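B., you asked whether I could sanity-check this one before it goes into the benchmark set. Here's the sequence:
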Amino acid sequence: MSTSTMFRPSADDEDMDEEELEALRQREAKRRQQQASLEEKMAERKHAATLDRPIYMTKREREAAELEAKKEEEEIQQLMDEAERAQRQEYMQKVRDALREQRERERSNRSALPLPKKEEQPKTKEELDREKELQQIKNAYLGVRKKKKKVMKISEKFRFSFDWGAEEDTSTDLNPLYEKKHEALLLFGRGLRAGIDRREQLQKRDAILQDRYRDIPAPPPPPPPGEPDEVPPPPPDEEYFGDIPPPPPPPPGEETAETSAATDKQRLEEKLKMMNSKSWLDKMNDRYDSAKHYTEKSIEDMTERDWRIFREDYEIVTKGNMRHPGTGKVIRPFRYWHESGLNEEILAVIKKVGYEKPTGVQMQCIPLGLACKDVIGVAKTGSGKTCAFVLPMLEYILSQPPITKETASEGPLALIMAPTRELVQQIEEETRKFAGELKIRVYSVVGGLSIEEQGFIANQGVEVMVATPGRLNDALDRRYMVLNQCNYVVLDEADRMIDMGFEPQVKAVLDAMPHSNLKPADENATIDLEGDIKYRQTYMFSATMPPAVERIARNYLRNPAYVYIGDQASTKDNITQNIEFLKENKKKDKLLDLLQNGPPPPIIVFCNGKKGCDVLARSLDKMGFPTAVIHSGKDQATREAAIEGFKSGEFEILVATDIAGRGIDIQGVEHVINYDMPKDIESYTHRIGRTGRAGKKGIATTFVTGEGVEENVLYDLVQMLKKCSQIVPSELSRHPAAQPPEQREYAKRNPKMVEAKR
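And here's what the prediction gave me:
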């Protein structure tokens, strides 16, 4: 009997009692617990092998199965998304209902407040006398402390004060008239100078002269050629009959009526000639009025005056060696993309991307890059610096032999270094717009990811590498990467890299590149750009020039051209700067008011510390505002997810430290809030530069408490607000830390005198 057979009592067993049946069941269970026979084991093994045998399906069946599985996954994902969306909408509705109830509660509380009391009636004379009498009795019993009158010495009373305020100083150090005396307004004949219009002066002079000589008759026409000017009188007769003798001839030197008429006639001719003549300024004005605008001329017909007006319009200032290293000619900017000298393939990509008109920094820096010049650029935020060094770099890469399997391990052809991971990824994204169409590979090397994987991908062949100096130097030290064929280097935000302590890493990376192809140090020397030697080319963009940046420029750049775009001492005019002077415990309430009643999201909120960012972000999340956080304490994946979510609209608010203050470009940001005042004015400038980009308007609101480290930056903040024609709050202008340095030093030395003046 097999193990599958069950014990059932037969008809003969029905006569058995319960004890016998129970014994039979126990024996049957004991027999089933015994091991199966060999035949049973073989049958079970054969059945299991049949079940494990693979089932072979046709291609159509496999595709149908995959399609069905994919469809099922999509349905599951759709259901999950719908559930999550419904849950989010339900949560947001709850938050809105809670806020609405809170507003109604506050409104009802305000309405329940008691009305203000009416003004009390003035006291009568009897009441005043009674109060005075009670006060005298109280003073008599309790005593009163009388203030001693301070007796001033005669020497102090009549001492002359030699101190004066900064507003009374007429020196060139503090007088605002002399702040920008080197920035004269050059109009080049296109307007007034010192309030005088030369053309109007000449018109008034001509009108006065015409009125003065209007009554003088016009001179007679000149005699025909060959005829004398006057007909001589007939000769006198030989005999003279008459009593009157002929008049004697006029003595020499005496003026007769005829000579006076001739003199008047000559003077009139000279004056009329002077009236009808044009001065040199009139001739130049007529010449300029009849000339075409530089936008209507070809680039070959541009004059020096046209180039000056062009640079003035686009706020371009150049210094240093601007001559072509191969030809020695002065390198001019271009006006339109077809005049840039770029490859036709690159011009087609520019048109496809949608860059219709170049910016000022692109007009000047791209020709310098195509001429293999070293460039130091200082430009406003959002002025198109990335495109200014990427396009010449792509032109250089297209002129090089393509990377093969043999040369892939020698490193990239071009290198771009930036201080932060976010800026590196933004430059990589901007470069891929152009490089993807040209089949040029771009790869970023940043911290937070596997260095072995990054080294493996780089050794497969990369034309452009974008990296942070710390991770790149680490990879070079550990021999994961080399830079043996890199001759194009870009240092973006060089001053920020130095401030973050990356000066040794930047120097180590530059030293790891070839040195035999540096351009000669002599600025008058010419080089052969078409030869076999590929000279190194270095771009450096920096907002300031501290000594460390100057050392790098002096050691690694050869005869650089300096390009300045716009005024770096002030922010852009299209940013409205609001200063809120309040206490620390009122910041969160003011922030909530700005988020509810201010410009719409996306909004960036800056804090000074990592812990402050996390605490503020959690508070905003609880209030119902989707918030992302980014600071140096977050890992790379979290930072990337936060940036992408903020760009896509998943998060309405981005709370960040100064790590997002430079270079990060997020479209649509109309409002930037400095929850904590930055520690220096440069950080303030870069923070508010995240809005008002690409010619759009923006608002920057800063919370100022006037305590702690904020005192070191208040004076610079006031000066910046005045230069930008922004409103300076009275609390800020009266703050002791916002006064000029001379007054602060005087207040420290003479605190009693300052208190007495108050």
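One thing to flag: The longest helix spans residues 59-112. Otherwise nothing jumped out at me.
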